[in-house]
Amino acid sequence: MPSPRFLQIHTLHSYTAALLNRDDTGQAKQLPYGGTLRTRISSQCLKRHWRMADDVHALSRIDGAEESFRSRDLVTRLVIDPLRAPFSDAIADALEPEFQKAVYGEKADKGKQNRQTLLLGAPELAWLAREAEGLAAAAGGDAKAAKAAAADWLKGFKDNIKALREATALPGGLAAALFGRMVTSDPAANIDAPIHVAHSFTVHAEESEIDYFTAVDDLKRDEDDGGADTIQETELTSGLYYGYVVIDLPALVANCGNDAALAGRVVHNLVHLIAEVSPGAKLGSTAPYGRAELMLLEAGDRQPRSLAAAFRKAIPHDLDAAAASLSGHLQLMDDNYATGEARRHLSLADTAPPASQRGSLADLAAWAQGQTAGAAR
User: Fold this and answer.
1) Do residues 20 and 243 touch, judged by C-beta distance below 8 A?
2) CA distance 323 to 318
3) What is the DSSP letter of 191?
4) H helix or E strand, kind and range, residue 261
């Protein structure tokens, strides 16, 4: 088989009495599928937990990784405020409007409400900070001169930062290299995401319960009025979730500055994070921690395809039933399309996916890392 272009990752995760991902009303997110309402975990939720994981396989621990920062206050907090001590508030205030417009767009100097939340990498922010410091130093304490110099600097900003990005391996940081970035004020700064994440959903009908709970005042005396001090309700759900991730390996290598070794380390850690890091709210009251009970990796050069259709018809909340349904659907796909993906899996169920070699999570992560080696464009 030629060097694979895509790595597909399928998982089954189980969680009990949890509230993993809430909607705007505070209830569990849902998804109708196959005429049955399911519980859902959004891709944004999953990606954030993988990005922010404090774990032995955290993305931030990868050798060669660069940090990314997401905020409306990047210019204020990380570029302008550091100038106030060595120079003056007047100099910093003179420079800030032009730097805000450079990063966030034409009206960004009018307030936060005119700025979108952007993701910038440590190399980009370090460059901006150096530029601001250089302008401040050249102004010699003259705020008017600083303001005029900033206006001239803004005219060449896009060309200059474009040159920086082209000469830097991870200008937007590792998070942007993995999950992409959209900058409406500067389309040239957009980064296509090589990692595509589907919303996870339960393979069975939604299982939900309203949890009634109270808080008692420990200092309440016998003669005080009885009853709880606080009475509240929250939704709890249980579920066996199908998850699906696709990694475009050549695109990932390209986003990592054509460093296939770095991309391989990313894939290795990401396989661990997908299997072991749980999304979840209400950690203190539900302990929503789980690991993949089935993980299937596929490497191939054909367009990916989800196995979600294995659960179009809701099945019982049962791992063996889910593993059998996934394996049966995959066999049908093989019989009809014969796309020839190489496979590795781990499973706590009896049923094994077709044409797949079993291994531990460490085996799967190492195999996935190896698939990345020949994926450079």
Assistant:
1) no
2) 9
3) B
4) helix 260-276
At 201-245, the pLDDT tens digits run 999 999 999 988 877 777 777 666 666 667 778 899 999 999 999
- How far is it, in rounded angstroms, from Cα 330 to Cα 322? 12
**Of 279, 213, 337, 278, whose CA–CA distance to 22 is shortest?**
279
Q: Please count the residues of the chain.
A: 377
Give me the pLDDT at residue 127, please.
97
Residue 92 parent element (H or E): helix 89-104
Has residue 308 got a pLDDT over 90? Answer: yes
Q: Left (φ > 0), alpha (ψ -120 to 50) or beta: where does 227 sit?
A: left
Phi, psi angles (nearest 5°) of residue 343: -135, 150
Full DSSP string of 304-330: P---GGGGSS---S-HHHHHHHHHHHH
Indicate if the alpha-carbon torsion angle 238, 346, 309, 268 is positive or negative: positive
The pLDDT, as a whole number, for residue 213 is 80
Is the pLDDT assigned to residue 41 strictly greater than 70?
Answer: yes
Average pLDDT, the chain: 94
Q: Where are the beta strands (DSSP E) in the chain?
A: 6-18, 30-33, 36-41, 68-71, 118-121, 195-197, 200-202, 207-215, 230-248, 294-300, 342-347, 357-358
∠ CA 173-48-165, nearest 5°, is 15
- Taking a C-beta distance cutoff of 8 angstroms, is the pair 218, 247 a contact? no
Strand partners, 239: 15
Answer yes or no: are the C-beta atoms of 272 and 266 closer than 8 Å.
no
Query: pLDDT by residue (tens digit) across 328-362?
Result: 999 999 999 999 999 999 999 999 999 999 999 99
